[in-house]
Design goal:
The protein is globular. Helix 2 runs parallel beside helix 3, helix 5 runs parallel beside helix 7 and helix 5 runs antiparallel to helix 8. The strands form two sheets. It has a five-stranded mixed sheet with strand order 3-2-1-4-5, sandwiched between helices. A five-stranded mixed sheet has the order 8-7-6-9-10, with helices on both faces. The two termini are about 35 Å apart. It is α/β, with parallel strands linked by helices. A hairpin with a 4-residue loop joins strand 6 and strand 7. The protein is built from eleven helices and ten strands. The longest helix has 25 residues. The protein binds 5'-O-[(R)-(carboxyoxy)(hydroxy)phosphoryl]adenosine and zinc ion (ZN). The site of zinc ion has 6 residues, from helix 4.
Length: about 350
């Protein structure tokens, strides 16, 4: 059995976790920076990097203490090496390198997206490759065929905004604050999803991708018209987002061979209406539906440690001069899409 220390610092969560190969999370700590970024309505990279630098080392110490372990007890040190905000990624990766150098333990440079993509296997020991993953968060909006460690086919990505980003921007337009997703979901419960006519960008399109920028603009026009209640706008927005997601997932399912499960991960997977719609889709295709617990869906270090567990089991590690990568696609074969270029 192996025990891996995982470190995550690619966006606005500073996190450390200890995870074993038998799927036990021995300890995990997350320091969220929501408060620091709230006045700006989004993550400010410079503020994030400084906060990681201040918090990470004590957080790792506390995580080890929670588990009653010393660094010597871990088998390897895994850290996010990208993609993400480069200042934060460097803080985490350089810290991991220092620990690896000081202890002589192997370093495992983890792709943050691989962390998300494999995390369902930490939560569910029965989940076998290949499975289809919808990765939906503030920074990511992809459909991936997950075939194994380091083996991914990107079936779809967004040509503009990520789904969580659309939730956040629409929430901001309604004056709901940041992060907007949970607030939009709450408000949507009080509204009528049929009240506001909103577009379903790319629904039914031959190309496989997502687009949410037009939906956000339509939310802005609906708000400015003064014709609708905020709750009706929120409910209609959420329904439009769900319709797009389901349509794109159907197209992706039709484009691949048999998969073992439909899996959703990323912060937007917290949304109960979205989970429900995906669960119904999975049932229709006779697929298992896996949605990891929320704490594993949003950015966290247990998923990074788990990706480390899977790589360590295959005998993989990285040299101490491994680079931090602001961009690091999971599927190098997948080309750029029109309009893309802002998101990982
Ligand atoms: O995975 P995550 O914590 O960070 C990254 O973006 O990588 O995801 C955060 C995103 C935010 O955009 C947030 O608004 C969205 O997930 N989110 C939600 C909900 N909870 C979080 N979106 C819709 N409904 C929710 N309940
Ligand atoms: Zn993430």
């Amino acid at each position: 059995m192996s025990t891996i220390l995982g470190i995550e610092s690619s966006c606005d969560e500073t996190a450390a976790a200890l995870v074993t190969s038998d799927r036990t999370i021995l300890a995990q700590r997350i320091a969220s920076q929501d408060e620091a970024h709230r006045p700006y309505g989004g993550v400010v990279p410079e503020i994030a990097a400084r906060a990681h630098a201040e918090r990470l080392a004590p957080l790792i110490e506390a995580t080890l203490a929670d588990a009653g372990m010393a660094l010597d007890d871990v088998d390897a040190i895994a850290a996010t090496a990208g993609p993400g905000l480069i200042g934060g990624v460097m803080v985490g990766l350089v810290t991991a390198k220092a620990l690896a150098m000081a202890t002589g333990k192997p370093l495992i440079a983890v792709n943050h997206l691989e962390g998300h993509a494999l995390s369902p296997r930490l939560a569910d020991g029965d989940l076998q490759y290949p499975y289809m993953l919808l990765l939906v968060s503030g920074g990511h909006c992809q459909i991936l065929l997950v075939e194994g460690v380091g083996k991914f086919r990107r079936l779809a990505t967004t040509i503009d905004d990520a789904l969580g980003e659309a939730f956040d921007k629409s929430a901001k337009l309604l004056g709901l604050g940041y992060p907007g997703g949970p607030a939009m979901e709450r408000l949507a419960l009080e509204g009528d999803a049929k009240k506001v006519p909103l577009p379903r960008p790319l629904k039914g399109s031959d190309e496989p991708h997502f687009s949410f920028a037009g939906l956000k603009s339509a939310v802005m026009r609906a708000k400015q018209s003064g014709q609708y209640s905020d709750a009706d706008i929120a409910a209609s927005f959420q329904q439009a987002a769900i319709d797009c997601l389901i349509d794109r997932a159907r197209r992706a399912l039709a484009s691949v061979g048999k998969v073992n499960a439909l899996v959703v991960a990323g912060g937007v997977a917290a949304n109960k209406a979205i989970r429900g719609a995906l669960e119904a889709l999975a049932a229709e295709y006779d697929l298992d539906f896996v949605a990891p617990p929320l704490a594993l869906c949003t950015d966290n270090a247990a998923m990074i440690a788990w990706a480390g567990v899977e790589r360590f089991a295959l005998g993989q590690s990285d040299p101490l001069d491994v680079a931090a990568r602001p961009r690091w696609p999971l599927d190098p074969e997948a080309g750029a899409v029109r309009g893309a270029g802002v998101k990982a």
